[in-house]
Amino acid sequence: MGYDAVHLVDEGLERLPDDEILIKSRLEGRILLTIDLDFGYLLAVSKESLPSVIIFRLGNESYEIINERLAEVLNRFDSNLISGAIISVSDRNFRVRQLPI
Q1: What are phi and psi of 87, to 5 degrees?
Q2: Which residues contact 75 (CB under 8 A, 6 or more apart)?
Q3: What is the 3-state secondary structure of the chain?
Q4: Which residues pair with residue 95 across a beta bridge?
Q5: How many CA atoms lie within 13 A of 57 on its CB side?
Q6: Which of 9, 34, 76, 96 sits at 20 to 30 Å (Cα–Cα) from 87?
Q7: For residue range 20-41, what is the model confidence (pLDDT) as tens digits?
């Protein structure tokens, strides 16, 4: 989609603890994409405003379906992501929570 994206596996960081992933994302100015609900909880208790997190809760987690839903999130919720949000993406809807919670 033309965005600067990295995967933790490509950086050899797939075992990085969740709290360190959040710190890395914040320092690099990234949006975290995940299927792991723990990131929403960690952000809520941290009281931080960034990084934004997009949590995918889909019946089909193929790259094609995730990319379709991601494109929709990026188009509809750009300002939320810039200011800091947790966006939960399901097959039917989106739930947006502005940070800090």
Answers
A1: -120, 120
A2: none
A3: CCCCCCCCCCCCCCCCCHHHHHHHHHHHCCCEEECCCHHHHHHHHHCCCCCCEEEEECCCCCHHHHHHHHHHHHHHCHHHHHHCEEEEEECCCEEEEECCC
A4: 88
A5: 14
A6: 9
A7: 999 999 999 999 999 999 999 9
Question: Would the pLDDT of 54 be above 90?
Answer: yes
**Half-sphere exposure in the Cβ direction for 95 (13 Å, CA):** 7
Cα–Cα distance list, 50 to 33, 61, 63, 86 (Å):
13, 25, 25, 9
Torsions phi, psi for 52 (to 5 deg): -70, 150
What distance in Å separates the CA atoms of residue 25 and residue 7, rounded to the nearest whole number? Answer: 11
Q: Would you say residue 100 has pLDDT above 90?
A: yes
For residue 2, name the pLDDT band (cuts at 50, 70, 90).
confident
Cis bond upstream, residue 51 (ω within 30): yes
